[in-house]
Design a protein that fits this description.
The complex is a heterodimer. In chain A, the strands form two sheets. A six-stranded mixed beta sheet of chain A has the order 2-10-9-4-5-6, with no helix packed on it. A four-stranded antiparallel beta sheet of chain A has the order 1-3-8-7, with no helix packed on it. The N and C termini of chain A lie far apart (39 Å). By secondary structure, chain A is mostly beta strands. Chain A has strands at residues 3-7, 10-12, 18-25, 34-39, 45-51, 60-62, 70-75, 80-85, 94-100, 113-117. Chain A is built from no helices and ten strands. Chain B is an all-beta fold. In chain B, strands 2, 6, 7, 8, 11, 12 and 13 form a seven-stranded mixed beta sheet that branches. In chain B, strands 1-3-10-9 form a four-stranded antiparallel beta sheet, with no helix packed on it. A two-stranded antiparallel sheet of chain B has the order 4-5. Chains A and B meet through β5 of A and β7 and β12 of B.
Amino acid sequence: EVQLVESGGGLVQPGRSLRLSCTASGFTFRDYAMTWVRQAPGKGLEWVGFIRSKTYGGTTEYAASVKGRFTISRDDSKNIAYLQMSSPTSEDTAVYYCTRDAVDPLAYWGQGTLVTVSS
Amino acid sequence: DIVMTQSPDSLAVSLGERATINCKSSQSVFYSSNNKNYFAWYQQKPGQPPKLLISWASTRESGVPDRFSGSGSGTDFTLTISSLQAEDVALYYCQQCYSLPLTFGGGTKVEI
C-alpha cells in the first residue's frame, strides 16, 4: 500500500526557514517523481512543484509563486522528499501535501502538514 | 499558464438526483500523440486530502462508485454524479497535467 507521510510543519516566523519532509513507503521511491501541492485555509489547491526521479535527472520544477524561495530535494536512500521553504511570508500559510508522480493525475496523497507563517 | 474555470461554484442537489460540474481549460489539454486528455477530477472532504476520482478525463479510478463519470475532450469537461448520495457532499476540483505549471480549477462545492 502506498503511504505518504508529511512532517515538519508548524509555526514559522516570516523570513525564517522551514523544511518539510515526505516519507514514502509501499512503492519503489527512486522510480517516481514527487510533487508538492498546497492549500491555503479555505482556499483551493495550488501546485508548488516537483522533483523528477534520478532516471530523469532528478531535476525540479516550481510554481512562479515559490521559485527562488522554495527548494525540493530527495533522498532515495531514505525514501524521503523534502520541501525547503526559505523566506516564507504569510501568503505561504497553507496545508502542504506531498503526492506521488508529476505530470500524471495525482493518485496518491499524504494527509498534509500545516505551515503557519506568522510573527 | 492554462487557466481552469469550474462552474458552478456551488450547487445543491437532492439525494438521488443528478449533479453536473463543468470545467473549461483556457487551452486544449489533449495530447494527440497518445490520444489522451491530461485532465483529472478530484474529490475533497473536510479535513482530508484530495482523492483522485477520474483520470484522463473519463477513466474512473479503482474503487470509485460508478455513479461518478467524466466526459469531455480538448477544453471542455464534465463530471457527473448520476444519483447523489449523502457521502458525495464534498468539494470537487478539476486539474490539468498537460503543461507546467499544473493548475487546478477553483473548486465546486456540492451540497444536499
